[in-house]
Amino acid sequence: MKLLAVDTSGPVCGVAILTEDGIRHECAVMNHKTHSVNLLPMIDNAFQSTGLTIQDMDRLAVVVGPGSFTGVRLGVSTVKGLAHGAGKPCVAVNALEAMAAGISGFSGVVCPIQDARAGQVYGAAFSAGENRPNRLMADTPMKVEDYVAEISRFGDRFLFLGDGMPVHRQKLQTLLGGCCRVRAAASGVPAPGSSGVPCVAGDGNG
Q: What are φ and ψ of residue 180, in 5° steps?
């Protein structure tokens, strides 16, 4: 399977091309330009760098949130337009599941969180699965303290990632102590290629 994955749901604009052999191309940009300026050139560059075309894709995937309403709308409309023009199916990917799909080698509870402001996060919880993460709780907006109480039902080792991680890192570490780990990745954001993992590994419904 060949797949084009797009993520404009957060501060980073991401594009990736995946095949059965893994990630063929991956690019993430966070600059002073808007996603609307970056996205189409990034898609063009992805095809040029791999020597593939949209006609070579079996499906197109786009992150549909949770995230920025404007960003999600841009990504969805762009991918739907490309898919319609090329006669290809497009599938929706959940942003939090895509973050969890990018984690390997951790046996505890994976906790992707997005900052929802006012001391809240939009979060979920997953455990490692054979092909894709196993969801432990639904995407839910809640106070950080309530979120920690909820995830504590699932284990005693937690890995946090997402744009909410640097914002709430100190509070999470205070509440959880040595049980808390954070992903040491730039800005705490997922790699664009992880947005396509749920589609390649499963039914692609995000």
A: -95, 130
The owner of tokens 């205070």 is 174
- Running DSSP on this structure, what letter comes out for residue 179? G
Helix, strand or coil for residue 80?
helix
The CA distance from 41 to 76, in Å, is: 16
Taking the C-alpha atoms of residue 79 and residue 91, their distance in angstroms, rounded to an integer, is 9
CB atoms within 10 A of CB 28: 18
Residues in contact with 132: Cβ distance below 8 Å, sequence separation at least 6, in sequence order:
97, 101, 197, 198, 201, 202
Q: What is the pTM of this model?
A: 0.80
pLDDT band, very low/low/confident/very high, at 163 (cuts 50, 70, 90): confident
Q: What is the mean pLDDT of the chain?
A: 87
Collapsed DSSP state (helix, strand, coil) of residue 53: coil
Q: Residue 47: which residues within 8 A CB-CB, separation 6 or more?
A: 17, 53, 54
Cis peptide before 66 (omega within 30 of 0): yes
Could you tell me if 68 and 5 are in contact, meaning their C-beta atoms sit under 8 angstroms apart?
no
